[in-house]
Specification:
Elements: H1 6-47, H2 67-77, E1 84-88, H3 99-105, E2 108-113, H4 116-123, H5 126-130, E3 133-137, H6 145-151, E4 156-163, H7 169-175, E5 179-187, E6 198-199, H8 222-232, E7 234-239, E8 245-250, H9 263-266, H10 287-295, E9 300-301
Parallel strand pairs: 1-2, 1-4, 2-3, 4-5
Antiparallel strand pairs: 5-8, 6-9, 7-8
Helix pairs in contact: 1-2
C-alpha cells in the first residue's frame, strides 16, 4: 500500500488553503468594488436633489449609518482647499466615516486606533497600498492628541475631522489646537437629551467597557458639543437620522445652502439598543430608562467651564 509522506500531505493542505484564501480575498475585493460603485451612483443621484436636510442625503457605503451620504452632501456645498482628513477610533477601518471619502474622492488621510491588531490589519489590507492613507496606533487623550497629529505631519487647515472614541470625545476635541478642520463629525450620546450640556468627567484612561459603569455611560450630550463648537467657531448643521453623529461646519466656510441649527432643532434620539442583560444579550430599555441610568453617574456641566 502506497502512503503519502506526511510533509507532502501537509504541503498540499496548505496550498489548497492558500488558494481558498486568495479566492476569498478576491471576492472581498469585488464586494468592496461593488459597494464603491453603488456609493458613486448614490452620490450622482443626490447631487441633483433639492433636499438640504442631512437626512435627505444619507446613504451608507462604509459608514455605520448614513454618514457617507451626509459627508458627500456637505462636500457639494462647502469649499475645501486642503483635502485631508483625520479619523480616530476606526477599529479595523472596514466601517468608518472616511473610507468612502478616501476611495471616492481620493483624499489623503490619517487614521488612529488604540489597538495594535486593528492597525496591523489595516496596514496589510489592499486599501493601505492603493490609497494615500496612514494608520497609526495611538490611545488618544487630551494630553497627547496634538503631539500625535504633529508627529504624523498633520497641522493647519484640513478638510475633515471625525472623532469617535466612545468616551472623552468632548475633551479631546476641546484640546485640539494644531489642526483647523473645515468639517467636524463627532459622536454624541443621545441619552443625555437635547437640553443638558453635559459630558463625562475627563479621565485619560476611560474605557467604555469598564464593568463599574453601564455601557451607555460615555461621551457628551449634543448641547455640550454645540457649546464647544460655538467657542471653536463652528456651526452645528445636523445629526444623522439614527442619532449617533453630529456634524459641524466652520463658520467662515458655512455656505448659504446649509443652515445652522440649535441643539433643539437638530437633536435626534437614537433608535438602537446598547444596554445589555446579565448574559450579554441586548436588553430593550426605553430612552427614558437609559437617560435615568446615565444621569446617576458623574457628569460635568460644560457651561460652568467658562
Amino acid at each position: 500500500m502506497f502512503l503519502l509522506h506526511p510533509i507532502k500531505v501537509l504541503r498540499n493542505i496548505l496550498e489548497r488553503f492558500e488558494q481558498r484564501l486568495n479566492t476569498l480575498q478576491k471576492e472581498l475585493w469585488r464586494l468592496e468594488y461593488m459597494q464603491e460603485a453603488l456609493g458613486r451612483i448614490e452620490t450622482r443621484q443626490l447631487s441633483s436633489s433639492e433636499g438640504q436636510r442631512l437626512e435627505d442625503n444619507e446613504f451608507r457605503v462604509f459608514s455605520q449609518w448614513g454618514e457617507d451620504g451626509i459627508i458627500q452632501h456637505l462636500l457639494r456645498h462647502v469649499k475645501i482647499d486642503r483635502k485631508i482628513f483625520v479619523e480616530f477610533g476606526v477599529e479595523d477601518y472596514r466601517e468608518s466615516n472616511t473610507r468612502f471619502l478616501l476611495v471616492n474622492n481620493n483624499w489623503t488621510g490619517l487614521i488612529l486606533d488604540g489597538d495594535s491588531t486593528n492597525v496591523r490589519n489595516i496596514k496589510t489590507s489592499r486599501i493601505y497600498w492603493a490609497y494615500n492613507i496612514k494608520a497609526q496606533q495611538a490611545f488618544v487623550t487630551a494630553e497627547n492628541i496634538n503631539e500625535v497629529l504633529s508627529e504624523n505631519g498633520i497641522t493647519g487647515e484640513i478638510g475633515l475631522l471625525s472623532i469617535d472614541i466612545d468616551g472623552n470625545d468632548f475633551w479631546v476635541w476641546r484640546a485640539i489646537t494644531v489642526v483647523n478642520p473645515v468639517i467636524v463629525v463627532v459622536e454624541y450620546n443621545h441619552r443625555f437629551g437635547s437640553q443638558a450640556a453635559v459630558t463625562i468627567p475627563y479621565d485619560a484612561n476611560f474605557e467604555r467597557t469598564r464593568a463599574a459603569e453601564p455601557l451607555v455611560y460615555f461621551g457628551a450630550s449634543l448641547p455640550a458639543l454645540c457649546w464647544l463648537a460655538e467657542r471653536k467657531g463652528y456651526a452645528f448643521v445636523g445629526c444623522n437620522s439614527n442619532g449617533v453623529n453630529a456634524f459641524f461646519v466652520r463658520k467662515d466656510k458655512l455656505p448659504s445652502a446649509i443652515r445652522e441649527l440649535t441643539p433643539g432643532e437638530g437633536y435626534v434620539a437614537g433608535k438602537f439598543t446598547e444596554t445589555l442583560s446579565a448574559d450579554g444579550t441586548p436588553n430593550k430599555v426605553n430612552l427614558e430608562e437609559e437617560r435615568q441610568m446615565v444621569m446617576r453617574f458623574p457628569l460635568v456641566n460644560v457651561e460652568e467651564l467658562d
